[in-house]
Amino acid sequence: MRNLLLASTLLVATLSPFTAAMAQQASAPAEAPAQSAILTPERVFANPSLAGPVAKGVSLSPDGELVAFLRSREDDVEVQDLWAAPTGEGEPFKLIDARALVPDAGELSEAEKARRERMRISARGVVEYSWDEQGRYILAPLEGDIFLATRADGSVRRLTETEADEIDAKVSPQGNFVSWVRDQDLVVYDLATNTETAITADGDGLKTWATAEFIAQEELDRDTGYWWSPTERYIALQHTDESTVDIIPRLDITGGGATTVEQRYPRAGRPNAVVELYVHDRQTGNRIKVDLGPNTDIYLARVNWSSDGSVLYVQRLSRDQKTLDLLSVDPATGASRVIVSQTSNAWVPLSHDFRALENGDFIWSTEETGWKHLYLYNRDGRRLRAITRGEYPVKGLAGVNQRTGEVFFTASMRDGRELPIEQQLFRASLRRTVTPVAITSAGGWWGASMNRTGTAFVGTYTDLNTPSQSALYRADGTRIRWIEENRLEPGHPAYPFASRRGEVTFGTLESHGETLVWQMTTPPGFDPTKTYPVVMQVYGGPSGGGVKRGWQSSTNQLLTEAGYIVFRLDNRGEGDRSAAFKQALYLKMGQPEIEDQVLAADYLRSLPFVDDARIAMMGWSYGGFMTLMAATEPRMGLAGALAGAPPTEWGLYDTAYTERYMSTPELNVEGYAASDVIPRLPNLTGRLLLMHGMADDNVILENSTRVINALQQNSQPFELMLYPGQRHGVRGNERQLQQWRTYLDFLDRTIGTRSH
């Protein structure tokens, strides 16, 4: 089969270095029992997790002697404990036992529920933690209260026990204070005197201190609203006024009734919250306002301090997101000046690549060459040199060793050329532009969390035969110790099912001068002389891309066990790739993406083992939108469509995301009209299953009810599954089991054994 698929791939792409790298894809399942068990939905959504002992949120202590991480409990995969392991000899140990400290977790506040939804946190127990910069303490919010673990003796101290939730807790840089937001105000707790001080006291109603607003959390990848200076003298904090934002009433429907929520939701083209930035001086008690410019209709994108705390750096993004200014701010006066500006005819992407150095220089990234790369600037914003360059995008700045001048970053490339399906850690230099050196091995997907000094990192790795594993490494890539080796061997939860995982193959298609990557997984016992139904999985929108050489999800295996080929294509607009690749969907979401998915469907139908009449598509969120757009595109010819939580009219979605890619409804009337699902519904092919959470505060339920109403008015049959109390995702083993039983039943009746 592998040779057949590769031959098909080579018909549509020559053996360029890109294609040659894609073709290196032998993916026979790892050694496993001769008689593997058949994976069932009941086992997938049960404890312990089939993923095995995966360490999440792994980080090194500042002194590099301890590694902390989150691990799901074996008796309840939805609850996490905090673990630690010495970087030298010694076994991992449980630092905070969530159930022991809070046996009966109560209901979270609405603010904390919303914050976790924005951060895509579905677990309970310990869901986040932080070190102080000396490594003396680990701070862990737990079910609305704050706990502090002392490194020296392992003791755990409860700092709060209040009715209100304490959110966004931090240890100050020098470890003298703990801070958090309670009831919309910022509080600082002195660890020496065990006393609280309210930094603000007038947060109430629509006015909030020190908390990232909805748009920042959901669309700007900024989850905090306050920032300690390195010396602990200053705290920069935002003030948010939501009174300008439209009220969008929505029903929060649960199994026990319905509540009307007067949600402040900024829809495309409508007013945003007004965000201001202040600096609180702990030495004088004064609070001054930062000059962000005369235009208040902007986004506070990023805030960083210089290494000595003398300068506050602020990234200010214009409302149309075509200009990103870096401001240098005097924290004593609030005076600011623009030292660097980035511009684009489409949008300027945000990143977390800004890094202030000890000598006053800083590192920042830009896409001005068409590829995202790192650059070195002096304190006045004058560019000194390129740190990276080439036809590949830097994924992220991982760390800097200021003593040696080494710069570490992640990228999806090999031999200086883009390779989207893999990711590695590379080393470059502050002192001159050099060819990057790979620190980690090729062939899979690496993530890296580096210590402050750039001398060690925690690496996570996965490939087609390796579940996610994590270890501590020196900066040269030498492994020091395992954190979670997570070997696929007897005793691993996934081991009994391993040999039936199916074979994964990768390939490429060409579209408008761009190379698209795809992956295909075939059922166990695949016979290329027979024909099979296909499930096309899709997201399709701006994201990190879904096609990668990594461990495949257990839900994918449910599909292959049911006899389906599973196929995924990353269309134009999807993935961290070139600016041109991403911007292909600018002002016309749902058009180039569907054109590429049609190309994929045509390719599938060219394969002798694909049943032309039995192709379905499934996706959630943007993938739900894509599924509806594909199901109403006659050239796709889908027999079935499974659409979850779909945005169906972009004028209903939020400002920052929608306007970034589509401008406003007033300025892009044609683009918004072309992406509206409703006028397309008469062209619906095949059967439709529509799903949505009935408390979704992101893609609100109105997106689906307008489709339900139109289909009924058109007298078109469809199937519907609504989830009371669920937000933008379906949470919990029980409900997810029901969801996947519903998926499999629908597919079986549509393209599976009962479809013909």
Topology:
Blueprint: H1 2-12, H2 17-23, H3 41-44, E1 56-60, E2 66-72, E3 79-86, E4 93-96, H4 98-101, H5 110-118, E5 124-125, E6 130-131, E7 137-142, E8 145-150, E9 156-158, E10 166-171, E11 177-182, E12 185-190, E13 195-198, E14 207-209, H6 214-219, E15 226-228, E16 234-241, E17 247-254, E18 257-264, E19 274-281, E20 287-289, E21 298-305, E22 312-318, E23 323-329, E24 336-343, E25 355-356, E26 362-366, E27 373-377, E28 383-386, E29 394-401, E30 406-411, E31 413-414, E32 417-418, E33 424-429, E34 437-438, E35 445-450, E36 456-463, E37 466-474, E38 479-484, E39 504-511, E40 514-521, E41 532-537, H7 554-561, E42 565-570, H8 579-582, H9 592-605, E43 610-620, H10 622-631, E44 640-644, H11 655-662, H12 669-674, E45 687-693, H13 702-713, E46 719-723, H14 733-750
Parallel strand pairs: 3-5, 41-42, 41-43, 43-44, 44-45, 45-46
Antiparallel strand pairs: 1-2, 2-3, 3-4, 6-7, 7-8, 8-9, 10-11, 11-12, 12-13, 14-16, 15-16, 16-19, 17-18, 19-20, 21-22, 22-23, 23-24, 25-26, 26-27, 27-28, 29-30, 30-33, 31-32, 33-34, 35-36, 36-37, 37-38, 39-40, 40-42
